[in-house]
Amino acid sequence: MTQRRRGAAGPAAITEDPGATDPATGTVVLALLAVDGVISAVTGALFLPLYLGSAPFPISALLSGLVNLALVWAAVHWTDSARLASLPLLTWLITVAALALGGPGGDIVFGGPGVMGYAVLLFLALGTAPPAWFLWRRSSAS
Question: Is the pTM of this model over 0.85?
């Protein structure tokens, strides 16, 4: 949508309104953010059994939570609905649930000896806490 500034004449006076976007653009962006939630879950899950020396170092759980926070923050700028803004987080959770199921031949993504047996709980807690907190704060502020 174009607007003309007051008191200005000529072609240089026409400016684009940054707040006016096509609804289809918002839908496409939200769909891409939802796909990014899936990518965040898969990437975080595959890097979860990372070791630093001989000690488990599941830094991908924290990084996945920060990425989810960024995705939800971006989604908030494209919609007023908290349900639609949480779409990247929901697709992340659905993907983690699908990865928690055994694959063909009994293959598993989450699991391992000792502490790594509980890594999925850490992954869920750190992956959902930052974006859930952001959505909760945003809904309680309005």
Answer: no
Ramachandran region, residue 131 (left: φ > 0; alpha: ψ -120 to 50; beta: rest): alpha
Q: Residue 4 pairs with which residues in a beta bridge?
A: 14
- Tens of pLDDT along 113-141? 777 788 889 999 999 999 999 999 988 87
- Residue 125 near residue 115 (C-beta atoms within 8 A): no
Residue pLDDT, tens place only, 12-50: 555 554 455 677 888 999 999 999 999 999 999 999 888
In the chain the first and final C-alpha atoms are separated, in Å, by 28
For residues 92 and 35, give the distance between their C-alpha atoms in angstroms, rounded to a whole number: 9
